[in-house]
Amino acid sequence: MRSKRRDILIDPLSIVQIVGDALVASVGVGHGKFIPLLIVDAGHRPEIVELIRIHEFLPSGDVECVWGQLKQRPGSVFLILSFIRPVVTQTLIEFDVRKYGGIVDKIIRAHGLYLQAGKLGDRLMNTPGAPRILMEIPQTDFDRTWESIWIKVLIQQFQEKGQRKDPKALALRLIEEWRRPDDLRMHEKLDTDTVLSDN
User: Fold this and answer.
1) pLDDT beyond 80 at 187
2) What is the C-alpha to C-alpha distance for residues 49 and 139, in angstroms, rounded to an integer?
3) pTM of this prediction?
């Protein structure tokens, strides 16, 4: 189902920042595709930490996922997560497009992400047993909007580096190269998580 554009009331205190990310894959999850993992600083949001913890012991709860932008932060896109159960709460994950554009693209193409609470310096490799949620991120109209947002930012970055000759072509080529691993799958005989990258 495609979502219509709408205004949503946002509490700035509900924004959480990314402190780590990775791409992981497991046999039996998402057909073996690599799915982004986000480690977010939820120190000021204890209910988010608790929600992730209790998801280990309860069936998956209900969550509404909406992509959007805020006029006050034009360089970022936000994933708005409105949890209905087992805890009623809302949080926004902020993605600086210059830094996390690749991760946003992977989330959109994988239609999912792992969410883990943590602190600055945490990485998947040093928190292998930490609780995390696997969430489905449905396809929306934002998927098409995202393409133009990312291309525009990449063009600006190439121009800032002095690349004046057809920066749009360079941006499109970079996106094509980045998406090439999207078709990778884990071999069925493997039964452990594989880390493609851990930043």
Assistant:
1) no
2) 26
3) 0.84
